[in-house]
Each structure stands twice: as C-alpha cells, then as structure tokens.
Design a protein that fits this description.
Blueprint lengths: L7 E2 L4 E9 L3 E8 L4 E7 L1 H4 L8 H16 L9 E7 L2 E7 L3 E3 H8 L4 H20 L2 E2 L8 E4 L5 E3 L6 E2 L5 E3 L17 E3 L3 H16 L6 H5 L7 H4 L5 H10 L11 H8 L30 E7 L6 E6 L6 E5 L4 E4 L6 E5 L10 E6 L5 E6 L3 E6 L4 E7 L5 E6 L5 E6 L4 E5 L5 E5 L6 E6 L5 E6 L4 E5 L5 E5 L6 E6 L5 E6 L3 E6 L4 E7 L5 E6 L7 E2 L2 E2 L2 E6 L4 E5 L4 E6 L6 E6 L5 E6 L4 E6 L1
Antiparallel strand pairs: 1-2, 2-3, 3-4, 4-6, 5-6, 7-9, 8-11, 9-10, 12-13, 14-43, 15-16, 16-17, 17-18, 19-20, 20-21, 21-22, 23-24, 24-25, 25-26, 27-28, 28-29, 29-30, 31-32, 32-33, 33-34, 35-38, 36-37, 38-39, 39-40, 41-42, 42-43
Helix pairs in contact: 4-5, 4-9, 5-8
Length: 608
C-alpha cells in the first residue's frame, strides 16, 4: 500500500504530502504535523513484507526496524538527522524524522564539479564527530556516501541521514552482515556475509566520500579492487589535493581493515582537521570548479532527451530491439524493464514475481527476430522471455557461476554465454539444450559476440586475451594479446571485418579480423572501458581508404565517448551520468544511443 496525499497517520498527528523515495525494503514520505511543520516518515514496504521469500522473516524485519529507530533516537547530535517519534500504523512500524531543507552532497557535486579542500574537510570533521556518537552507542552507519549527507540551506552544516542499514556491532567480533552496499563507498567486509565489524567500516566510507568530493569520481569498488583493478590516487584527478589529504584518503580506503585507522578519530587526526575548521565558510554557491579533464571539441553533438529512473538499483545492461521499437534494461534489483525509446515510457517489468531472477541481471540480448529476450544473471542462470506476453518461457542452468555475457547467433537458433568460471557455452534456443562448451580462457569470460555470418564467436576475458572460436566445431582459431588488463567488451562491425575491444587498462583497440592485426589504439578514458558499440550508420569498412564511421564507448569514468574511426580522434564526450557507465547500445538507424549506469538510470541520447 502507498499512502497518498492527505492520508492521516498516528491518530491524525501527521498528514502525508507526497512520497519522497524508496529503497530495497523501505519507503519514505514527506508529511506535515497538525501545526504545519514538515517531517519525513519512513516505513517498510508492504510488498516486501508480503513477499513469499520475506514472509518467514516478517516479524524479525519489523522488530529490527523498531529497534534501530530506538537506538538512533538516542544518537543526539547536530550533524545527525533527528528521530522525533516511533509508532505503528496498521502493524507497519514507522519512524518520524526531522525534514532538512537543503541539498545532499551528491547534488552539490553535480552542480559544482568538485569541492574546495577546506570545505570538504569541514564536512568530514562534522560527519566524523557525528559518527563518533553513533559508534559510542554501539552502531555502525555502513552507507556513508555523498547522497547521504545533507547540507542545510544557508548554513555550513552537514547532516548524516539514511540509517537504513545501520547495525549494532561488537568490535572485531565476526557478525552476520546484511548484503547491501554502495559500490565505491563500501569496504570489502560488506561484500562478505560474515565478517568482523568495527569502526573501520565507516572509516572506509568516509574516506571514499572525501575522495568523491575532491575529484567528482566514484572510487573503484572494493570488489573490483580485490580483482586487481587499482584504486587511482585522488591527486591523479585533482592535483590541487594536498599530499596529507591524499595519503589520508588512501589509508582510510585500505582493503585490509587492519591497515586502516581503527577509529574515526584516528582518521581525522591523519587529515589534520582541528576545531578551527568550523569557522570556515563553505562555497557551495560559488562558480563551478574546474573538472580535471582536457577540453574536447564537439563536432558531433549528442543530446540527452530522456533519463529513465524506474530502476531502484544499478543498471548493468541495456539493449535495443532489432526494429528499434524497444529498449530492455537489466538491473541489480533482479528485474528487467522494457521501455519505449521515443517517449521513455515504461512498458513492462519482467521478473517481479516467481519467474524472475534471484540475483542481479548482468546481460541481455534480443533475438534477431525481436520475439525473444535472453537475460543472464549472477544467479547462474539464463532466462528466455517471450516479449509478446512478458513471460519467462525457459530457464537454463548455465555455468554453475555468474553469467557475464550472452549473444544470439544471427539466425537466432543458437545462444552463446560467457561465464565467471572461464568457460563459454553454446545453447540451442528452441530446446535449451547445451550443444558445446568452449574452454581455453584462464579467467572469467566477460564478453561474447557472433560474427555476422554466425561462423565465428569472439570472446574477451579477464585473462587479458581475446579468442576467436569456430562455432561448428568449438575449435579455438586465434588468440589476440595486447591489452594489459581485463578485456571487458568485444564487438564486431556490421560486416564482420573489424573487431573492437575495451579493457580495464582504459584503452580501446581495433583489430583486423582476417589477420588478427592490431589497427589502432584509442586512448582517452581514465577508468576501465566497460562497453563498446559501432554506429551502424554510416557503415564501417576497412579498405585502402582506411576505417570509416564512428563508435561509442562507455566507461567507469562516468562518461561515454564518441570516436572517429578513420583518425582515432575523440569527437564527443557525454558526461551526464554520475556513476559508472556499464552498458551502451545504438539504435538500428544510428540516431539514438542508450546508456546504463550505476547511478540507477538509463539515458536516451539523440544525435542533433
């Protein structure tokens, strides 16, 4: 049940004005008191409580919510959002919080670019003092990030909000974690179901927040860092950061908890913040700060015409149907959504009930006739969906590990999948039968794609290599080496003559398929290249005149770049996403580009 405007709560003491937002299990409302004062009311989502998977835990979920509200209510501090009261409404636990007029630091970054170091340090001191109070009460926040820090209007005051995953802790005792985290801001302990808890968890989040405030970049996630993707020092993006602050950020974000400062106070001491900082006047209304990137000429202009926000989690994959009439997106909230490209209207959600995935949807592919959609998930399965009904018609138990990439063959009869267990499997679409397993990669297979004639399959892997396979026999034909890190994306031109590969070494390489010769390396991204797409119009060709046409690349530096293939020049940068760009796709006419991001949005771009 969603409470509409005018709904009375707690015996008429609070009147609902509107819904503010919702997360995985919670929903928040803006309300007013009988005296007209604004408040925020948070409760649990009824559809979660009634979900068959959650129903056995319903009583505990409600009690945990009430207990956490009680514990937070005693955390009185000027830089902690205040809890006013706790009550039940038709057996739904509710907490009432103060309403803060202002904007969160995430929006400040969007508006300003980066914060001056002195301003950022002032906010770190304020939030650090708040966290010390929380820790003394035996609680951890566990979700510190710019979006969860509000700045009061007209004041130099930061306020820590959103304690949705706050938990009790006993220092250094192994405890069970709720599996929730914000990539880039969560330490590696939050990727484990059971791990010791300590103040060092919030130290990591606070240090990562300072990293973002001073660079306007999301730090490399702890999970990716454990897979050998390095954390780039913040001074690389902003040379104005002092050596002391740069070092304190890196120490606060050490992967091993024992190497981090063990308390918030220890980390604040490393920063050198003192009481004198409270007299500083932040400049959040000042002119935008310079972003530390080279200005780019824009001979080819793309405009964002729609931002789609229906997903409640990171969007990992986006594809456009062969007729250009549908966009499909897959998300970390385990669902798939279908959209109308022209209007951005949500048409249907797949997988909300019993036929859906039980973990994040990592990859999608339309069948060539546009009748089927295939989805691959971290629940180790592939599902085939009939688009006319929105029903899952087949579930394939795929790799006994994460499914990273899937692709239909040009005739639609075969489906290839790349798994985290280093294998590629080829399936018969109509029966779901496994035809062949291809082995040869020594690490996770990140991307697979068929040649236009369906005779060759190309794969990119975390073993830094690209492999060509003969589909009919499963024989490995060729291995390409040249990247110095994971190969995240491989894609072929419309005629199958040119291969593009994108890597965590931040580079894109173009290869001649017939010879395996490297043609050109494109550089410009400052973080891993996650997705590539050739623009089908104009066509790509490799001949005496050289390469023709353009291609797009999406990256963890939050940008999409458009490249001129003949020169290798970067001709446009699209930078409206606020987090990693995970996936991109062109429409069949080449006039529309869609992108999916860890900022929970899909953007539709049109060439103008």
């Amino acid at each position: 049940m969603v409470w509409n405007a005018g709904y009375l709560l707690f015996g008429g003491r609070y009147i609902i004005e509107r819904k503010l937002g919702e997360g995985g299990i919670g929903i928040t409302y803006l309300a007013r008191t009988q005296r007209g004062e604004r408040r925020v009311i948070k409760t649990l989502k009824e559809n979660i409580l009634n979900n068959p998977a959650w129903k056995p835990h319903q009583a505990k979920l409600k009690q945990d919510f009430r207990d956490e509200a009680v514990r937070l209510a005693v955390c009185r501090h000027p830089h902690i959002v205040q809890i006013e009261t706790i009550f039940d409404e038709f057996d739904l636990p509710c907490m009432v919080m103060e309403y803060i007029e202002g904007e969160d630091l995430g929006k400040c970054l969007e508006r300003m670019g980066v914060l001056p170091e002195a301003d950022a340090l002032l906010y770190m001191r304020q939030i650090g003092d708040a966290l010390k109070v929380i820790h003394r009460k035996g609680l951890l926040h566990r979700d510190i990030k710019p979006r969860n820090i509000m700045i009061r209007n007209g004041k130099s005051e930061a306020v820590l909000i959103d304690f949705g995953i706050a938990r009790e802790f006993i220092p250094n005792v192994v405890q069970r974690h709720t599996v929730y985290r914000t990539p880039g801001f969560a330490p590696p302990e939050q990727y484990e179901l059971e791990a010791p808890r300590g103040e060092y968890i919030d130290v990591y989040g606070l240090a990562a927040t300072l990293y973002s405030l001073l660079t306007n970049f999301i730090p490399t996630s702890a999970d990716d860092r454990r897979n050998n993707i390095p954390l780039i020092p913040p001074q690389h993006f902003n040379p104005n950061i002092s050596d002391r602050v740069n070092k304190a950020i890196l120490l606060g974000m050490e992967l091993q908890p024992i190497y981090r400062p063990q308390s918030i106070q220890q980390w604040l001491d490393l920063l050198g913040v003192g009481d004198s900082l409270t007299s500083l006047s932040p400049t959040l209304t000042s002119t935008p700060q310079q972003k530390f990137s080279t200005p780019i000429a824009l001979p080819e202009r793309w405009q964002c015409v729609h931002t789609l926000k229906s997903h409640s989690s990171m969007v990992h994959s986006v594809v456009i149907s062969p007729d250009g009439q549908l966009i499909a997106s897959g998300s970390g909230n385990n669902t798939i959504k279908l959209w109308q490209p022209d209007t951005g209207r949500l048409l249907r959600t797949l997988g909300r009930w019993f036929d859906g995935h039980s973990s994040m949807v990592q990859t999608l592919s339309f069948s060539p006739d546009g009748q089927l959609l295939a989805s691959g998930s971290w629940d180790d399965t592939i599902k085939l969906w009939m688009l006319s009904t929105g029903r899952a018609i087949r579930t394939i138990i795929a790799h006994s590990s994460w499914v990273n990439s899937i692709a239909f063959s040009p005739d639609g009869n075969l489906l290839a999948s790349g798994g985290a267990n280093s294998t590629i499997k080829i399936w018969q679409v109509h029966t779901g039968q496994e035809i062949r397993t291809l082995t040869g990669h020594s690490d996770s297979v990140c991307s697979v794609t068929f040649s236009p004639d369906g005779e060759i399959l190309v794969s990119g892997s975390a073993d830094y290599t690209i492999k060509f396979w003969q589909v009919s026999t499963g024989r490995e034909i060729r291995t390409l080496t040249g990247h110095s890190f994971f190969v995240n994306s491989v894609t072929l031109s419309w005629d199958g003559k040119i291969l593009a590969s994108g890597s965590s070494d931040n580079k894109i390489k173009l290869w001649q398929v017939s010879t395996g010769k490297e043609i050109r390396t494109l550089t410009g991204h400052t973080n891993p290249v996650s997705s590539l797409a050739f623009n089908p119009i104009p066509p790509i060709a490799f001949d005496t005149g050289g390469l023709r046409g353009t291609m797009a690349s999406g990256s963890w530096d939050n940008t999409i770049k458009i490249w001129e293939l003949n020169t290798g020049n970067e001709i446009s940068t699209l930078n409206e996403h606020s987090n990693y760009v995970r996936s991109i796709a062109f429409s069949p006419d080449g006039q529309t580009l869609v992108s999916a991001s860890d900022d929970d949005t899909i953007k539709i771009w049109q060439r103008g």
